[in-house]
Amino acid sequence: MALATNPEEDDEATMVGAVPAELLAQATGEHKAIDDTKEWTAVYEDFIRTKKQCGEPVEGLTFEKFSHTLKKNRDALVQRHACKRVRFSVYVKEGRASLKATPVKD
Q1: pLDDT-based confidence at 67, cuts 50/70/90?
Q2: What's the predicted TM-score (pTM) here?
Q3: Is 12 part of any domain?
Q4: CA-based Rg of the chain, rounded to a whole angstrom?
Q5: CA triplet 35, 38, 44: central angle to 5 degrees?
């Protein structure tokens, strides 16, 4: 098989376009991680704000540690309740910031 050295023959070559990042993320399941990160960032900020309002220390509470805890809780609830996702919210319980996890079936 000979390689084309004529530029006109190269123009007839089939070109494959790049797969859009959103489509690739949906196909691999990465879009869930992106969605979780957006939602969890808002919950983290609310949690930090609530802890400060309650006079609780927030030193050392990084988003990485926070999201790791949410992931463990999410995975356990998804398995236990056969739900598709879990929504987290912040509330005050006995003067302390707390998280509520709600299974979402849809």
Answers
A1: very high
A2: 0.66
A3: no
A4: 23
A5: 130
Residues paired with 41 in a beta bridge: none
The encoded tokens of residue 1 equal: 């098989």
Please tell me the total count of domains within the chain: 1
Q: For residue 49, what pLDDT is reported?
A: 97
Q: HSE (CB half, 13 Å, CA atoms) of 106?
A: 0
Q: What is the mean pLDDT of residues 35-57?
A: 94
In a domain, 2, yes or no: no
Structural domain boundaries enclosing 77: 30-104
By three-state DSSP, how is residue 63 classified? helix
Query: Can you tell me the distance from the alpha carbon of 67 to that of 74, in angstroms, rounded to the nearest whole number?
Result: 10
Domain for residue 67, yes or no? yes
Indicate the SS3 state at residue 29: coil
What lies within 8 Å, CB to CB, of 77 at 6+ separation is: 83, 86, 101, 103
Provide the percentage of residues in the chain whose pLDDT is more than 70: 67
In sequence order, what are the beta bridge partners of 92? 97
Any domain includes 9: no
